[in-house]
């Protein structure tokens, strides 16, 4: 099960896991994007894929869709919590309660809800792999992005505590903390930062590149490859970790 699998990092993770033999269930609000990802999986791999429309801010709908996945697939062995929203780009005093709550509901509560929904079937099988997509911003400040940063450090706390709770059921729980991932979503972040600072967008982009040891932005495939490793037997003894994929921008 991959949430937010319709575009970007989520699409790359779906394709990477499918290419290594996983059956893919995509959960997303983006039905058009999900359909495109399913089409790519079926055209480019030998795996099967299905889509399930869900708003992760809706607890009842999350439970309903996960139950449907379990009925259709016979269980969920892997959960990748990738769905997330950018939230507002604004100083804290200008962030509305509605903006704060929506960011927390999707980015943090959504991951809690999906974990809660799949854990009974993982415990019954005595096996599971959960990968939560956090962010470098959960560890490092990002100007005018307090709701997003708070939600992502919350994901790291959820990951560590859940890993400790379920480890004796052969369930591993890890987080990936990407740096700036190239694509349309990052373009919107850069545009918001440029407007807030009164500087050109390209200056913000070049600064982001220059701040990494590699002088590069992260690509969706970089995150997908680590997600696949964390779900494989090669990572059986890796749990409770928050692993950076930042081209060297973050080193702790």
Automatic annotation (TrEMBL):
Gene3D superfamilies: NAD(P)-binding Rossmann-like Domain (3.40.50.720)
Biological process, per Gene Ontology: monocarboxylic acid metabolic process
Signal sequence region: none
Protein origin, superkingdom: Archaea
InterPro entries, alphabetized: NAD(P)-bd_dom_sf, Sc_DH/Rdtase_CS, SDR, SDR_fam
Xref: PANTHER family: 3-OXOACYL-(ACYL-CARRIER-PROTEIN) REDUCTASE (PTHR42879), 3-OXOACYL-[ACYL-CARRIER-PROTEIN] REDUCTASE FABG (PTHR42879:SF2)
Family indicated by similarity: Belongs to the short-chain dehydrogenases/reductases (SDR) family.
Protein name: SDR family NAD(P)-dependent oxidoreductase
Organism encoding this protein: Haloplanus rubicundus
